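Sequence, please.
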């Protein structure tokens, strides 16, 4: 159970949770960046949770580490992969939206020097309709990474046990 859920059970929490605006209703976790070599743009992924009663609209994003951050959607039409810009992304009431490889992502380009490297934590601000923003830490991961690395790889423990004498 998240801290927010606990807060909502208290009297003060009830008041806070009933206030309009999503600043108290949208949270983000598992932020990570897939770094690509050279000057290729990097991609940012994150999970957004809207625990409020109203939809929240993500309209843009920015970062001190990247000169340009765009909302993108990857698609695969007739076997060819492509990306398109997205004006805004809705996180519906009481639901979540996952920015993930092959789907929605943040396209990060024009990295500021020194360029982000694997292991860095990059702050990205997510800007929502209505003027509020959310500061989210993104951990930088290598090009081959599939997720934020917070889940331990499965299977490695048993294989190493089998290999030991
Ligand atoms: Cu893209």
């Amino acid at each position: 159970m998240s801290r927010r859920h606990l807060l909502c059970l208290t009297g003060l929490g009830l008041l806070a949770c009933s206030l309009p605006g999503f600043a108290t209703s949208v949270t983000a976790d598992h932020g990570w960046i897939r770094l690509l070599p050279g000057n290729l743009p990097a991609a940012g992924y994150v999970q957004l949770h809207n625990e409020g009663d109203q939809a929240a609209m993500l309209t843009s994003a920015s970062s001190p580490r990247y000169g340009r951050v765009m909302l993108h959607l990857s698609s695969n039409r007739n076997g060819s992969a492509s990306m398109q810009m997205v004006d805004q992304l809705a996180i519906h009431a009481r639901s979540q939206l996952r920015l993930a490889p092959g789907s929605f992502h943040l396209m990060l380009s024009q990295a500021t020097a020194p360029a982000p490297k694997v292991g860095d934590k990059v702050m990205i601000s997510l800007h929502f309709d209505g003027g509020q923003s959310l500061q989210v830490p993104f951990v930088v991961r290598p090009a081959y990474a599939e997720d934020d690395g917070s889940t331990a790889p499965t299977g490695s423990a048993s294989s190493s046990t089998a290999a030991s004498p």
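Confidence is low (pLDDT under 50) at residues 1-23, 155-165.
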